[in-house]
Design goal:
Helices cover 66% and strands 11% of the residues. By secondary structure, the protein is mainly α. It has one domain: Orthogonal Bundle (Arc Repressor Mutant, subunit A), CATH 1.10.10. It has a two-stranded antiparallel sheet. A hairpin with a 2-residue loop joins strand 1 and strand 2. The radius of gyration is 16 Å and the shape is elongated. The N terminus is likely disordered.
Length: 106
């Protein structure tokens, strides 16, 4: 019986994680940032993201923060620059959920 409870708890956590990710991705400016980050192998600074998506640096920074909070983006300091990458784990989980949940196109 305890195992079922743990499985249900894990499912709830998974749904909560996906819900947060989909909410963060529901903004066209954040989708543009995700697209820009998907083309980067070395990570991107806020300034680089800002230039790529033609947004003011402050706006890009706020969107990156929201994407980090949703687990879509990870960041780390490298020298004096905060670099951002897509979190491959959550992207794969989103892809898996879409493939498992939505019907295949006809």
């Amino acid at each position: 019986m305890a195992r079922a409870g743990l499985a249900d708890e894990a499912s709830i956590t998974e749904v909560d994680d996906l819900h947060a990710a989909f909410r963060a991705l529901g903004n066209p400016e954040r989708l543009a940032i995700v697209a820009a980050l998907s083309r980067s192998r070395d990570g991107m600074s806020v300034s680089h993201v800002s230039a790529q998506v033609d947004q003011p640096r402050l706006v890009a920074s706020r969107h990156l923060k929201r994407l980090r909070q949703a687990g879509i983006v990870t960041a780390r300091w490298e020298r004096q620059t905060h670099l951002h990458w897509l979190n491959a784990d959550i992207i794969e989980r989103i892809e898996d959920w879409v493939c498992e949940t939505l019907p295949a196109p006809r």
